[in-house]
Amino acid sequence: MTSDQSPKPLATPLAMSATVQTTNSTTTATANTNGEATPSPLPKPVSPQSRPATTRPHPKPGYPTCKLRVECHDLNHDGAEVFFTNNIVSRDFSAAVSTVLSTLYKPSQSNSHIAPVRSVTLVLRAMDTLAYTTGSELDDEHKEIHFDLGYISKIPAEPSNRRRDEIQGVLVHEMVHCWQWSAYGTAPGGLVEGMADFVRLKAGLSPPHWKKERRDSWDQGYQHTGYFLDWIETQYGEGSVRRINEALMNKRYDEEAFWTGLFSKSVQELWKEYCETLPGQLANEAVVVEGNSQKLRDTKE
């Protein structure tokens, strides 16, 4: 290079502008008068109104739980051997609770419509009656089911599932008494016992000697009223017995108002219709209504 071929001066930084290109985007920064790059403007914040709404699903309602206990007064009793050989206590006792609650109630968020029970204790002992349910000495929300070991020991071994089904059937029946409503104790005993056998029937645990038959009154209890309630469940839709139970929750029992309020018919009318559906009745038998009871009359008279 000669002296008259001097290099041209470079451009000053003040006159420069730069474009920086990355792989995925292009960012432009313009130099200010001090030679410092001017940053790109920040994105505008999203207003709460423009954000998509998010909701949390409500938890699915479930049934209440309670403590379950078992006491056996004599492990050497034959009935104790039959009971513990044919039942898995933790599984079958819990299953009895689930069967009763799912038949008598639908769960809600509060479950305030379900009878309060804090614990159920199964007491296996020798006694003069088959089984009964009572509130404990602590308070009525702690229940006790007493079950006769002598009865358990005499349950036939055949067919193979007979002992298990009979034990579970009795447990389900008695468990109903822990959870059902009774109109402050004014509901007919036949209705209370009939609801317990209805739940047992729906659970597929009816013993072989049960049968549908005409009786003088709808409220003779146990399987007789249980089959009657099963007919109501069929005629008036699933959940009818649940409605009966819940109607016994917070007022005293008045027969006429109770049944007509639920089904627009008296219980005598319902019983008459039920008896007319029973097969295998004698041709000379007819059901007549006399006062508050149903009676059979020989049509030859």
What does this structure look like?
By secondary structure, the protein is of the alpha/beta class. The protein is 34% helix and 16% strand. The protein is built from 9 helices and 9 strands. It has helices at 78-86, 89-104, 149-153, 162-179, 189-202, 222-236, 240-247, 255-263, 267-275, and strands at residues 18-21, 26-31, 37-38, 67-72, 119-125, 131-135, 142-148, 285-290, 293-298. Strands 4-5-7-6 form a 4-stranded mixed sheet. A hairpin with a 5-residue loop joins β2 and β3. α4 packs across α5. It is globular. Mean pLDDT is 84; it is low at 10-29 and 282-301.
Topology:
Layout: E1 18-21, E2 26-31, E3 37-38, E4 67-72, H1 78-86, H2 89-104, E5 119-125, E6 131-135, E7 142-148, H3 149-153, H4 162-179, H5 189-202, H6 222-236, H7 240-247, H8 255-263, H9 267-275, E8 285-290, E9 293-298
Summarize model confidence as the mean pLDDT. 84
Cα gyration radius (Å): 38 Å
Structural class: alpha/beta
Q: How many E-type strands?
A: 9
Please describe the biggest sheet, giving its number of strands, its sense, and whether it closes into a barrel: 4 strands, mixed
Number of helices: 9
Strand order of the largest sheet: 4-5-7-6
**Gross morphology:** globular
Helix content: 25-40%
Low-confidence stretches: 10-29, 282-301
Strand content: 15-25%
Distance between the termini: 148 Å
Helix/strand order, N-terminal first? EEEEHHEEEHHHHHHHEE
